[in-house]
Amino acid sequence: MARAANILLVEDNSDDATLVCTAVQRTFAGIRVFVVCDGSEAISYLTSEGLYKDRNAYPFPDLILLDLKMPQVNGFEVLRWVRSQPTMKGLPVVVLTGSVLASDNTLAYESGANSYLLKPSSFEGLLKTVKSLGEFWFEGNLRPHVLPPTG
Hints:
The chain is of the alpha/beta class. It has a single domain (5-138), classed as Rossmann fold. It has 5 helices and 5 strands. The protein has helices spanning 14-27, 39-46, 75-84, 102-111, 123-140; strands at 5-10, 31-36, 63-66, 93-97, 115-118. The chain has a 5-stranded parallel β-sheet, with helices on both faces. α1 (14-27) crosses α5 and α2 runs parallel beside α3. The protein is globular and about 35 Å long.
């Protein structure tokens, strides 16, 4: 059983976001998913700006699931921004993308991704991916404590 945790899902495709949220709910009862639809919204969430200023309603995540190909601020830019924040250097960022391009994989890791996962083509595959992800990051992995930034 995974510990209670919060995931920030950064995904511009609402269908994919719904599938990921459903897979997490079916796999791990203690994990909550908060969804934002682009990179600029992710940065606002992480810095508690605007709509996201209430940390009780929008808690700081224990892990970010990040799509790469998004309008406005893309996933690579979010990765670089997160890694440039002293308080977020230890925050796990897992890329969840449909891109099989070796150049995207390389750039994601160079930008600070902790892992690079391909979006499965079936819901059963997504359930397996989410289960593995949760077991690793929330059960088996011991990582540094990450404090939310203060205003």
